[in-house]
């Protein structure tokens, strides 16, 4: 996960007050959920050939930088999509916490 996304998660979810170990665990957990949501949305708008290439990148475990570069080339508005998923997750977690 790149530094910009990590910083965004920390800021948007108010994780900066947590001890470093806990913050890292939360960033990984939230980042994973955002990653899955973005991949699902991205695949829905990609061509079949691009979907096949994406699956190959994932299967070969080429790393997050390669994956993000590929998605950036193939998915218009990728950063907006990521930001939307962060906001969506933030709102959902706020809704859950307000019910407790």
Radius of gyration based on Cα positions:
15 Å
Label the structural class: mainly alpha
Shape: globular
Query: Beta-strand percentage?
Result: under 5%
Whole-number average pLDDT? Answer: 89
The level of helicity is over 70%
Ends: how far apart?
A: 31 Å
Number of contiguous helices: 5
Largest sheet, described in full? none
Number of strands: 0
Q: Give helix and strand order, one letter per element, not per position.
A: HHHHH
Ranges where pLDDT stays below 50 over 5 or more residues in a row are none
Can you describe what's shown?
The structure is a single chain. This protein is mainly alpha-helical. The chain is 81% helix and 0% strand. It has helices at residues 3-12, 20-45, 48-59, 64-74, 78-99. The N and C termini lie far apart (31 Å).
Features:
100 residues; mainly alpha; 5 helices; globular
What is the topological layout?
Blueprint: H1 3-12, H2 20-45, H3 48-59, H4 64-74, H5 78-99
Short description:
The chain is an all-alpha fold. It has 5 helices and no strands.
């Amino acid at each position: 996960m790149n530094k910009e996304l990590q910083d965004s998660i920390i800021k948007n979810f108010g994780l900066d007050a947590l001890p470093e170990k806990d913050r890292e665990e939360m960033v990984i957990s939230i980042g994973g959920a955002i990653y899955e949501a973005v991949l699902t949305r991205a695949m829905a708008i990609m061509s079949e050939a691009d979907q096949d290439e994406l699956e190959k990148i994932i299967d070969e475990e080429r790393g997050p930088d390669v994956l993000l570069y590929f998605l950036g080339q193939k998915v218009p508005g990728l950063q907006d999509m990521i930001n939307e998923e962060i906001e969506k997750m933030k709102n959902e977690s706020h809704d859950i916490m307000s019910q407790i």
